[in-house]
Amino acid sequence: MSNLTDLTVAGIRDGFRKGDFSAREVAEAFNAAVAAGKPLNAFLVETPEHALAAADEADRGRASAEFRPLSGVPLGIKDLFCTAGYQTTAASHILEGFVPTYESTITAKLFGAGAGMLGKLNLDQFAMGSSNETSYYGNVISPWRRKDGGNAALAPGGSSGGSSAAVAARMAPGATGTDTGGSIRQPAAFTGISGIKPTYGRCSRWGVVAFASSLDQAGPMARDVRDCAILLEAMSGFDPKDSTSLDLPVPQWEAGLSADLRGKKVGIPKEYRVEGMPPEIEALWQQGIAWARDAGAEIVEVSLPHTRYALPTYYIIAPAEASSNLARYDGVRYGERELPDHANLQEMYAATRAAGFGPEVKRRILIGTYVLSAGFYDAYYTKAQKVRALIARDFEQAFQQCDVLLTPTAPSAAFALGEKSADPLAMYLNDVFTVPASLAGLPAMSVPAGLDAQGLPLGLQIIGKPLDEQGVLNAGLAIEQRAGFNARAEKWW
Amino acid sequence: MSVDATTVRKIASLARIAVSDTEVDAMVPELNNILGWIEQLGEVDTDGVAPLAAVIPNHLRLRDDVVTDGNIRDQILKNAPQAEHGFFAVPKVIE
Amino acid sequence: MTESTYRIQGATGEWEVVIGLEVHAQITSNAKLFSGASTRFGAEPNANVSLVDAAMPGMLPVPNRECIRQAVRTGMAIDAQINKWSRFDRKNYFYADLPQGYQISQLYHPLVGEGTISIEPEEGQAKTIGIERIHVEQDAGKLMHDQHPTRSYIDLNRSGVALMEIVSRPDMRSPAEAGAYLRKLRAILRYVGSCDGNMEEGSMRADVNVSVRKPGDPFGTRTETKNVNSVRFVMAAIEHEANRQVDLIESGGTVVRETRLFDPDKGVTRSMRSKEDAHDYRYFPDPDLLPLELDDAFLAECRASLPELPDAKRARYEGPLGLTPYAAGVLTADVETARWFEALLAETARVQGKPEADVAKAASNWLISDLFGALNRLGKDITDSPVSPAQGGQLLGLVADGTLSGSLAKQVFEIMLETGDDPAKIVEERGLKQTTDTGAIDAVIADVLAANADKVAEYRGGKDKLFGFFVGQTMKAMAGKGNPGVVNERLKAALDN
Ligand SMILES: [Mg+2]
Ligand SMILES: [Zn+2]
């Protein structure tokens, strides 16, 4: 076999079944790639032994023709998922040294399906960020570089920046991500890979460090649409331990894949044509529309009138929920404790949290605390939840005229590290296309569709009706097949 | 609505995050910038709109009244910065 | 509302006291409100703790049906509105006994709305107290301060145990009314079975809101005295707090709205060091939980499973059963007494083959005077009475069928208390049966009359009063076993001969 790390999840699964290679060979190849990929800083913890153990079990199973859905497939796990016996920090200092005694539902499902773990992936601290620059453990550097020869270190997107970089750099065939306002889709777009955020409630949140509970959804990030379908099937399913989990059977998304869009209507929301959008993005979008038409879809223009209010709505709701979700990090039961001399309990809390949280996390906690505080709750939080209802209603109405929506994933290609980190608002605007679907809990994915003038990947986003992951995946597949995206980051590390 | 240094200190105290004067000075314009931006929601007519209660229509499930958990003190205390005699320990609290 | 006459005499005249109570009652359940850990009292520290209760990263709440059910049943028991749509909110604050950094509670949409509880204070008039709401929430853990010189220890066993917070309207006007309200509430909770009402174990505690005003004036500023854990202490806290406020106002001060603590040793309330600099709890709907929607079947089951409640029971005792208001009040004050009485009544009626109404008075009298007297003497509760309701019924049956006289019954009861034996067995073994054998009685009477010939002559000469003397002598000679009716009858016949 020439290069096992070039294989997709499906390629590994099928090749392993056929006996083209052993699971151990795959695990060793990826373990080596992870070790060699240190300059990207994608992994916070490397767990080669976990990948090998799962591989050996898969190899033993093969002897008796026992195959599980992910037998032989090693994966990267975003460090927001609690993993039993392996440090889980959410890329924060405040959880440094925290080793869960429990396994998140999603990682348990993946490991139960035969997958092994290559390591814990870097991210924006507590998943708050769009560039992976808020990690306490340093930036993740995108494997991609601009054609200008400047070798500027680029952002892999965020918050699942470790996941996107690892998959794009062939250090993992697939990885878990989480998406609160675009944290799967935007980094996927920045690094030329695919990623899907399912309907809110498809993937259990149990054991995933919470950012904003009403928005957080896990999902897979991988090289192509088929891999996303395979991984999502393994990750999804009802979990009685999560009150917001949907008690529904998991469809066979891989088996249902079809790039034939005849009879389908693809909606183009006119409000996504935002001011100042680079012409390249607009051109890519038009190209995507042409591909959808080519796949047999009818194109309809739709309106989502409250689109421009999605970001400010998000930046009230997500920080409000986060300010409360992160109250548990207080230095009492786990993680860092900062105890200045003679400090009382409340002073210990304040010192611990001051030292343990990074600036962006603090910023959001403060915003969230403010919007919930006495006298402001209705003006901010209640108002935002009302606008959120209007945004959800916009989608409902649009979906009376079409089956899926097609939009750009992000307003630009990857930017350089440091380029936007000084201006929080400019950073927030990155999520302008991804946030509305998050607010409405809808399934949405990004597929790589082309390159910008600098040779950097650009993604197209497909948004579907609630529970219609299949429609999203199928439209994604139709784009994928026509885009024929095969660019990859030149290895420089 | 805009925040001043006093308000920022008050919020930080509510959130139990110690802040230095320099940090407060930096935060005031930053938070005002963000708050000013999110206030554009005021433009939206939301009369008669109910705040969104559940993202995806779903019902709250209730579990049976059965003891299925507990007796895992070692796990509970395992990551504690300070645990003694089966308790978590913190600086003495005067009530 | 009936006016209360309780007043505090101040230097400037009379003051009226206005009281509202927020009672935290632990819901009876096996597992916690949002986790599967046990609620058992007295476990090793941090044993009844799940990952959820310790607020480990990524943990999520899943509500316990039984806790919701019990709160709904409690609401139904006070004729309250049950909200089919409610939801849980987070109350955010930092404290060492609160692992999540927030308490899951219900502020905006509580499970139970307005209801009422009728009370009969020991002093003053009967009245109805309004209930504003009942909401369901989590209890906090426990902090221990006396085990280490510089550290406090945290035990999370109680963290996450389900509570009902029962909020009254400010409808009470005296410590006696507050005491009656608490006792009545406790009785209702115990009837319903939603809370064991055990104040020593912390199953019930009250936040006491007190203000004072000149009669007819608008409400004054109130203070809240937290976590008072007995009826007596609540009454004492009100008394002290009301007097403190009157003194304060009359000396030119103003009452500040604050949280206070009751010191049971000194009988005073004192201001709590304001542990939360600003009370800004930033309530918002818990995004980990969906709205709680109850369907008609659930509500119907809750209603169908409600027992007869104290007020209804009392009315039935006074009406169809014909008991005195006093007896009906005593027998219904606590669910265990009522339960015992009804078992006794059923057995008494069965043994005698009579309707319950015909034997209710005898059963009630025996329970209130004989049984309660004995239990009091023995320092026992009705739940650990050495005599069972069935045995009580048998005893009353033996009286009714003439086997035992009243005094013999008392003797037999004493033996029952000691041995736990059935009355029939005692009567049999110890020959305590009363005699109705006229032959035997006549023989004794003949002896008595022979031995007291002088008195017989006096009696026959018109000294009627001596009849009692002959009865006494005859009974004494029969060691109390003579049937009083038969003895009377035969004596009369013999003397009037
Ligand atoms: Mg209270
Ligand atoms: Zn409460």
From TrEMBL, chain A:
Amidase domain: from which residue to which, for each copy? 28-473
Name the UniProt key words of this record, in alphabetical order: ATP-binding, Ligase, Nucleotide-binding, Protein biosynthesis, Transferase
What would you give as a GO molecular function for this chain, any one? Answer: ATP binding
Alphabetical list of InterPro entries matching this protein: Amidase, Amidase_CS, Amidase_dom, AS_sf, GatA
The Enzyme Commission number assigned here is 6.3.5.7
Keyword Iron annotated: no
Kindly state which reaction or reactions the protein catalyses: L-glutamyl-tRNA(Gln) + L-glutamine + ATP + H2O = L-glutaminyl-tRNA(Gln) + L-glutamate + ADP + phosphate + H(+)
One Pfam family per UniProt: Amidase
- Write out the coiled-coil annotation as residue ranges: none
Instruction: List GO BP terms, alphabetically.
Output: translation
Q: Provide one Gene Ontology cellular component.
A: glutamyl-tRNA(Gln) amidotransferase complex
Q: Which domain of life is it from?
A: Bacteria
Identify the enzyme class. ligase
Name the job this protein performs.
Answer: Allows the formation of correctly charged Gln-tRNA(Gln) through the transamidation of misacylated Glu-tRNA(Gln) in organisms which lack glutaminyl-tRNA synthetase. The reaction takes place in the presence of glutamine and ATP through an activated gamma-phospho-Glu-tRNA(Gln).
Q: How does it assemble?
A: Heterotrimer of A, B and C subunits.
Question: Which PANTHER family does the entry mention?
Answer: GLUTAMYL-TRNA(GLN) AMIDOTRANSFERASE SUBUNIT A, TRANSAMIDASE
Q: Which family does it belong to?
A: Belongs to the amidase family. GatA subfamily.
Q: By what name is this protein known? A: Glutamyl-tRNA(Gln) amidotransferase subunit A
**Organism of derivation:** Edaphosphingomonas haloaromaticamans
Q: Gene of origin?
A: gatA_1
TrEMBL record, chain B:
Q: Which UniProt keywords apply?
A: ATP-binding, Ligase, Nucleotide-binding, Protein biosynthesis, Transferase
A GO MF annotation of the entry reads: transferase activity
InterPro entries, A to Z: Asp/Glu-ADT_sf_sub_c, GatC
Enzyme Commission number(s) from the entry: 6.3.5.-
Q: Might you name a Gene Ontology BP term for this protein?
A: translation
Enzyme class of the recorded protein, top EC level: ligase
Q: Which domain of life is it from?
A: Bacteria
Quaternary data: Heterotrimer of A, B and C subunits.
Report the family membership.
Answer: Belongs to the GatC family.
Name under which the protein is recorded: Aspartyl/glutamyl-tRNA(Asn/Gln) amidotransferase subunit C
What species was this sequence derived from? Edaphosphingomonas haloaromaticamans
From TrEMBL, chain C:
User: Which Pfam families is this protein grouped with?
Assistant: GatB_N (PF02934), GatB_Yqey (PF02637)
Keyword Nucleotide-binding among UniProt keywords: yes
Query: Can you provide one Gene Ontology molecular function annotated for this UniProt record?
Result: ATP binding
- Ranges for the Asn/Gln amidotransferase domain? 339-495
Domain of life per record: Bacteria
Q: Please name the SMART domains in this protein's record.
A: GatB_Yqey
Q: What does this protein do?
A: Allows the formation of correctly charged Asn-tRNA(Asn) or Gln-tRNA(Gln) through the transamidation of misacylated Asp-tRNA(Asn) or Glu-tRNA(Gln) in organisms which lack either or both of asparaginyl-tRNA or glutaminyl-tRNA synthetases. The reaction takes place in the presence of glutamine and ATP through an activated phospho-Asp-tRNA(Asn) or phospho-Glu-tRNA(Gln).
What protein family is recorded? Belongs to the GatB/GatE family. GatB subfamily.
Q: Could you give the subunit structure recorded for this chain?
A: Heterotrimer of A, B and C subunits.
Q: What is this protein called?
A: Aspartyl/glutamyl-tRNA(Asn/Gln) amidotransferase subunit B
Name of the gene encoding the protein in the UniProt record: gatB
